[in-house]
Specification:
The complex is a heterodimer.
Chain A lengths: L15 H32 L8 E9 L2 E4 L1 H10 L3 E13 L7 H5 L2 E12 L3 E14 L2 E14 L2
Parallel strand pairs in A: 1-6
Antiparallel strand pairs in A: 1-2, 3-4, 4-5, 5-6
Chain B lengths: L2 H18 L13 E4 L2 E4 L1 H9 L6 E12 L2 E12 L6 E12 L2 E11 L3
Parallel strand pairs in B: 1-6
Antiparallel strand pairs in B: 1-2, 3-4, 4-5, 5-6
The chains are: A alpha+beta, B alpha+beta.
Organism (chain A): Polysphondylium violaceum
Protein name (chain A): NTF2 domain-containing protein
InterPro entries (chain A): NTF2, NTF2-like_dom_sf, NTF2_dom, Nuclear_transport_factor_2_euk
Chain lengths: 158, 119
């Protein structure tokens, strides 16, 4: 999934170190995003729905097909109202969200992460939809090694 | 500028350039930009613009819906839409996400994700 384009970044040849840092961030991002999607968010969402709340914190915003919920209480209500689900992931992409203008040393091993996912979701037993979902995972200030969902937005596209 | 205006202005500006002459995208992407295009990751302005300029089509007709969300230091833009390439009748569905960061009064494009929908 990651293509090494270092030789075409002529303008960055003086900044070989910068490229190496970004490359490492991308590798770590792919590992963390894969775990988030395949081991946490969607499996929990489909089988232990209320456990998903642990992935959010109070400033989090979750948007379901245009309905915006801010804060843990509203997000808990949203999670309770959505019918039993079964997700099939078709594609996902992820990127580190680097601090700007300079990558901070602590961000290389532990960047904030943007993830976009497409797939199909079955709600209840009858209605299947195509969906597109975006997540922004950020470091928990009280526990910086841990990421939480600062923002997520799902759109049903069929 | 209000976030909604920023989102609309950027989106319009980006697609005007993309749909007319992709070489001018070098004004938008930066050394720090990262593009995910159909699953491949391109890093930095040179690699990104080279990939986009070499895509094998000329004209695009586009229809979009746009959502946006302010972030701590910028704005995220979510686009779902259709594009018809080089006069083809069938339009393809796609989704694109931009993450812009505000720096010294300017919004800079750091993260760009593009995926065609599977049919």
């Amino acid at each position: 999934m990651y293509k090494n384009n270092n030789n075409s970044n002529g303008s960055n040849s003086a900044n070989g170190g910068v490229n190496e840092n970004l490359k490492k961030m991308v590798e770590i991002t792919i590992a963390k995003a894969t775990a988030f999607i395949k081991e946490f968010y969607y499996p929990l969402y489909d089988t232990e729905r209320l456990e998903v709340l642990n992935l959010y914190k109070d400033p989090s915003i979750s948007i379901w097909n245009g309905t915006e919920c801010q804060g843990l209480e509203k997000i808990r209500n949203l999670l309770s109202e959505i019918p039993k689900s079964s997700h099939t992931i078709e594609t996902f992409d992820c990127q580190p969200v680097q601090s700007f203008p300079n990558i901070l040393p602590e961000d290389i091993d532990n960047p904030n992460i943007l993830i976009t996912v497409t797939g199909k979701v079955l709600y209840g037993t009858v209605s299947t939809h195509n969906f597109h979902q975006t997540f922004l995972l950020v470091k928990d200030p009280s526990n910086p090694q841990s990421l939480f969902i600062s923002y997520d937005c799902i759109r049903l596209t069929s | 500028m209000e976030p909604q205006q920023v989102a609309q202005a950027f989106t319009q500006h980006f697609y005007n350039i993309f749909d007319s002459d992709r070489r001018n995208l070098e004004q938008i992407y930066r050394p720090e930009s990262v593009l995910s295009w159909e699953g491949k990751v391109y890093q930095g302005k040179d690699a990104i613009v080279k990939h986009l300029v070499n895509l094998p089509f000329k004209n695009i007709v586009r229809k979009i819906d746009m959502d946006f969300q302010p972030t701590l230091n910028g704005i995220m833009i979510f686009i779902v839409g259709t594009l018809a390439i080089d006069g083809e009748a069938k339009a393809l569905k796609y989704a694109q996400t931009f993450n812009l960061v505000l720096h010294q009064g300017q919004y800079l494009l750091l993260n760009d994700f593009f995926r065609l929908a599977l049919e």
